[in-house]
Amino acid sequence: MINEEYILRGVCPDTLGLVAKVSNFLNEHNLFIKESAHYGDPETQKFFMRIKVISPGKNIDKSNFNNNFKNLAEEISMEWSFEDAILNPKTSIFVSKYSHCLQDLLYRQSVSGLKLDLKSVISNHPDLEKIVSDYGIPFHYVEVSKENKDEAEEKILKILNEDDVDLIILARYMQILSNDFCEKYYGKIINIHHSFLPSFKGAKPYHQAYSKGVKILGATAHYVTGELDEGPIIEQTVDRIDHTKSPEDMEIIGRDIESITLAKAVQYHSEQRVFLNNNKTVIFK
User: Fold this and answer.
1) Burial of 259 (0-12, 13-18, 19+ CB in 10 A)
2) What pLDDT digit, counting tens, does each position of 68-83 carry?
3) 197 has pLDDT over 60
4) For the chain, which terminus, N or C, has the lower number of CB atoms within 10 Å?
5) Mean pLDDT score, 197-217
6) Distance between CA atoms of residues 74 and 71, nearest Å
């Protein structure tokens, strides 16, 4: 028996009767609601909706659905999408020298823990090519310096365009992307950084945190914007520590937190659970 699963996502001005209108439409088209989540933001007056539907015993005519739902969407001024539940976004991972987040993502993707169509790994250092090659993923070394930054970004864009990339993951990529690059891929670049970096900027943040007697370590995964580390937050994780932890202990703990936090953010994105809401996000877990 065929049970195709699709995700209907929508954002529109909040008003009465939206859930009923969409639910009635799905029922009229013989679609069974398997999961449903919605939220009305009282501040932005926006309505967010994510519904997983199945068509018991038959294929869904996606083109026909789109043509019919378009009329309802126009009536309620909804921006929407209707995609396969397993989207497998075409993905490129950017990395520098730290390998912990990269290796975690590669492993999760290899055992289908993350539904990604991994097209490439791009790095400004050649150090991690062997790790990537062992997974059969194309590795591109693009050297970046102050003198060639624009040229390097053009090379990177060419790789991304050739692979028609939908998602970019910055797995400890230690280069700042240009404003034009960030705007081109807005909502499609996920970065990971130490949650305490605003307090401890520069080199050796864990040593700085140690010297201040920090009791909580954390990491933040967020979408990238032109403002450094200021994009909409997707996921945050913290872990308590005590005075016995050395800077080296803290770095080990921090790397685990970073890997887990980034993987969760990527999973939420690939499962179409994340909605941008001005400078924040709405996430249906």
Assistant:
1) buried
2) 999 999 999 999 999 9
3) no
4) N
5) 75
6) 5
Question: DSSP of the chain, one letter per residue?
Answer: --EEEEEEEEEEE--TTHHHHHHHHHHHTT-EEEEEEEEEETTTTEEEEEEEEEEETS---HHHHHHHHHHHHHHTT-EEEEEESS---EEEEEE-S--HHHHHHHHHHHTTSS--EEEEEEESSSTTHHHHHHTT--EEE----TTTHHHHHHHHHHHHHHHT--EEEESS--SPPPHHHHHHTTTSEEEEEETTTTTS-SS-HHHHHHHTT--EEEEEEEE--SSTT-SPEEEEEEEE--TT--HHHHHHHHHHHHHHHHHHHHHHHHTT-EEEETTEEEE--
Cα dihedral: 142, 145, 150, 156 (round 10):
20
d(CA 164, CA 157): 10
Q: Which positions are catalytic?
A: 229
Residue-range domains of the chain with CATH: 3-84 (3.30.70.260), 90-283 (3.40.50.170)
For 235-268, what is each residue's pLDDT tens digit? 999 999 999 999 999 999 999 999 999 999 999 9
247's tokens: 């800077």
pTM beyond 0.85: yes
**pLDDT tens-digit readout, 212-227:** 888 888 899 999 998 8
